């Protein structure tokens, strides 16, 4: 659909065609994406809002377990919970669009500040995991994705073993790996901490566990891309010209693998954000995922809405960035804009 | 007429698909056998808690003194039940949405597709956490939430497949004579899509099994009275430093089940793509040749 | 078919001043521009042109698959846009179609019998037409198989067990099972080899003689048109460049594009060497 939208020429005055048309198209595309994102978030928080109301009276939750009925009634008035539901919803929506989620019920500070404070930890975790993911999956994928020179078509025994291992690792859930790593490195060997994310050595176990979620899949994407290049006419011709396998790998295979690599790693960031929720729980990391889980358990609606919104924004930003990178990496797209 | 077509569809299925289905059925029978253990926990004996493997307790005991092997058997039904329910929900919703958006390409179908895109882009554990938070932790709710989180995967596949089928001449013809899209969907599209939906559903089934266990780790899985592999794993996590056997046995069981399910899904996918090749690809790619070689006799030269 | 107040004239179907445009960027591109083609009762009308000339667009408009931008689609002398949806559907029922690609026009999951029965079942479900029993449908299917000279043993075959020519016969049987008054054939032999082409064209000619069907045959091949058509229409770039009786158009082309198409076809036939003799021999 975005394809269709971008194919449509913009209705603009032809007189002032001073701007770069490519930049304008990107801007237009970005604008549409932003509108869609806002629409999606509004839909999501709307569902949240009404579901939360079905589940429980917010005044009772706000007042806490020891409140008298008078306290609850007072809170109802203070927070505007005595007005009709639709008015409450519209108020909520207006505040939401102004990025005002109200105070967190458990922490008594603005929910957005609370969520934003946690965001850094989660992002760091995901970024380190992405680095590990790409650093591990790329060489492995290239290795199992094709031989060099005359052996291009054949797969040696070692290569077959490695690709078998990659296939098997895909079946093992990352949270099970996390438990395994904790048992081995934190409990038995006692060389790495099992809890927290504040020192560099405490980064290792959570990031490796999280990277496990994405790496096997990325390796297989790289593998199939590399295999395609190796069996292409281009490589046959280059081999016939007498180029060395290493040159072919650096000149032809790597650049062509880059495009699917970036596209996959970009979409995998979402996967990592999913996994981060669980990894944070297992390693006791005070990230955004933890905040969401705790907010759900405490019926802390403002924190929940703020956290979900921030995650939506992160996903959007990552998608946009990988989209741009993808365009830069792909020579065909670069030329056509 | 419809049932007639269905038995024919069965006859036409390639061997790989059939054997995968038999595997799936035997898995279900295993599930049913385990079901007889009932939904509750295994018997507990608090004096025997946190024991390693022994002749009496092959896989040791858990924090409440329950036999780990017994508990695994008690937990399987819940995990399978939730996964089946969620997969059914995802497959049903995904198929309906995918077919209708593919067939009726109007503005609203584009809007639905955008929603699908966003839902796919949105971390599904986050979505599940939030929805379970507001809906509750019952079996049905968990299945519903996981179904909601995963239906877009099915919808996407079905949608793109429908777009291709829509251009097929036999579908265009059928639409001409019936003048009724629902009829065409029922008679031609759904049977053509079934194998593809089965393949995606098999992958979704694996995803759901894994995700349901993850919810327990987050403390928002089924209530602790429910016996499930996820709850066992979460229990095992607590006692990781004193008795790793709880986590080890449940994790191993889960990995084995997931590998098994993924293997099935892979086989199903391979079989489906083979049948696709036999039915359409070779014939579409080499019609002239086929006719040249044999203009009058039967031209069955599928690779079988 | 019951009398629905549809006027009866000499025209089985027609398009008049038909234009179809689509948007490409900001520009409107004509797929068909002011095209008028008449398909008289019981005649075979050929529509010829190169790929992209607009033949398919005309055909799609006639079948109701494409909405005309302007102009009129008529069936049995009745402008479809002026009658109720129900009447329009009844009129559309008089047209049947044989599609271009015999390898895609039959559902691979359906047997020959199921495929031929599909329009019959559809017809019997429609309001205003009398329902057919299963037996009656089965009987009619057997009849049609005979009509297109396929052995009864093929009744429960699947498309992948049939040759291209056999599939096209099934498609013709399917189209004629509901006794249409107009048959539209979209490049019916393009995907077939020479021998099978001759067989299929011969079959169409026979059926035409037997039931007095009006046929619109769309092709890019002049020799196909020359063999069958009574009237010929030539299209180029969305416009009709020449129309008339087959003999006059083929023997004395007025428009240079027609002359070019004829010359090209002659050249190919001669160059093909064994082609023409085989075609004529098999057609007899």
E-strand count of chain B: 0
Uncertain regions spanning at least 5 consecutive residues of chain B: 1-5, 277-304
Specify the structural class of chain B. Answer: mainly alpha
Quaternary form = heterotrimer
Biggest interface, chains and residue tallies? A-B, 46 and 40 residues
Mean pLDDT of chain B: 77
> How many strands in all of chain A?
0
Q: Give the N-terminus to C-terminus distance of chain A in angstroms.
A: 17 Å
Report the portion of residues of chain B in β strands. under 5%
Query: Low-confidence parts of chain A, pLDDT < 50 over ≥5 residues?
Result: 1-18, 149-153
Q: How confident overall, as mean pLDDT of chain A? A: 81
Biggest sheet architecture of chain B: none
Radius of gyration of chain A over alpha carbons?
Answer: 25 Å
Characterise this structure:
The complex is a heterotrimer of chains A (337), B (304) and C (284). Chain A has 337 residues and is an all-alpha fold. Chain A is 77% helix and 0% strand. Chain A has 14 helices and no strands. Chain A has helices spanning 2-7, 21-55, 58-63, 69-78, 85-97, 111-144, 157-171, 174-188, 200-230, 233-240, 245-283, 288-298, 301-329, 331-336. By secondary structure, chain C is α/β, with parallel strands linked by helices. Helices cover 40% and strands 25% of the residues of chain C. In chain C, the strands form two sheets. Chain C has a six-stranded mixed β-sheet with strand order 6-7-8-3-9-10, with helices on both faces. Classes of the chains: A mainly alpha (337), B mainly alpha (304), C alpha/beta (284). Chains A and B meet through helix 2, helix 7, helix 8, helix 11 and helix 12 of A and helix 4, helix 5, helix 8, helix 9 and helix 10 of B.
Report a brief summary of the structure.
The complex is a heterotrimer of chains A (337), B (304) and C (284). With 337 residues, chain A is mostly helical.
List keywords for this structure.
heterotrimer; A: 337 residues; mainly alpha; 14 helices; flat; disordered N terminus; B: 304 residues; 11 helices; 75% helix; 0% strand; elongated
